[in-house]
Amino acid sequence: MKYFWFVLFLWSCGSDTAVIEEKSMCIQASEHIASCGIEVTPLPADCDLGGAAEILDISCAELNNPGKADFFSKVLCRTGLLYTCDVDECIGVQPDGFTQWGDCADLLVSPVDSDCRTCDYYRCKADQREEVCTDVDYYIDFGQRYCHRFAQLTEGKLSTAGQEWSHRVRICLMQFVEDNLDETDTCRDIKQEALTSHEFCYETTGFCELPLTDWLKILTTVDPFDVDLKSVLLTGLQCLKSYSDENPGILETDLDDGP
């Protein structure tokens, strides 16, 4: 299966040796991983230097050892590839009056929107759907999974503007489902319709106005092998392309067209 990935290299125009060292070590670590035949998203150029150094000290035999998979994922997480990080189980506070399950829309009401339990909206919708999804279940495999990942992992690493955007886009994506899908829709229709919401929500909630450092963290949260997120990446990459056109050489991007 083909996969898609992106490379974001931040090139320094100054002479700060620390920045140059950081860029060099992160790129070297990415090259080492690739030389070992391991397909992962290249490390961001502002990756954690300790994690990059640790990768450079690991042989290809060790990197490809199935018994080292968990250890390798933890190191990759430390470098800044957020999609490799484990996400803790959500332990939130039920909103007043909420029952299992009542009206799924109750989970979209503030102050629950600032709590990871908001992501249970997707499980609520899945449980109320008439058709059982035997292949990919958008609500569980995409909606809930990434909602938890962004709410519990990525959001706290973003700027203040990025955190506010994360709240807005999370509710926007759920509100689209609430307004446009119901329990009679097929699994295929749910997936196709819900995916169309990402470009609209990312654009209208201000993704393109976020600082470049937030773009990095948001994009590295996405599993590069999850081709269903292509619409999200394309939205982000349109912003990156515009930036790159205005600042030649600053950004380098690559996106496989998928299967």
Description of the structure:
There is one protein chain. By secondary structure, this protein is mostly helical. It folds into two domains: 1-86 and 247-259, no CATH class; 104-221, no CATH class. The protein is 51% helix and 0% strand. It has ten helices and no strands. Helix 5 (120-128) packs antiparallel against helix 6 (138-154). The longest helix is centred in the middle third of the chain and has 21 residues, at 160-180.
Report the sheet-strand fraction. Answer: under 5%
Helix and strand pattern: HHHHHHHHHH
Q: Count every helix, treating DSSP H or I runs of 4 or more residues as helices.
A: 10
- Secondary-structure content class: mainly alpha
By DSSP, the count of extended strands is 0
Distance between the termini: 6 Å
Report the mean per-residue pLDDT as an integer: 77
Largest sheet properties: none
Regions with little confidence, pLDDT below 50 for 5+ residues: 1-22, 249-259
What count of structural domains?
2
Shape summary: globular
Specify the helix fraction band. Answer: 40-55%
Rg, rounded, reads 19 Å
What is the topological layout?
Blueprint lengths: L16 H19 L13 H8 L3 H4 L5 H11 L40 H9 L9 H17 L5 H21 L6 H18 L7 H8 L10 H17 L13
Question: What is the compact description of this entry?
Answer:
This protein is mainly alpha-helical. It has 10 helices and no strands. The N terminus and C terminus are likely disordered.
Keywords:
259 residues, mainly alpha, 2 domains, globular
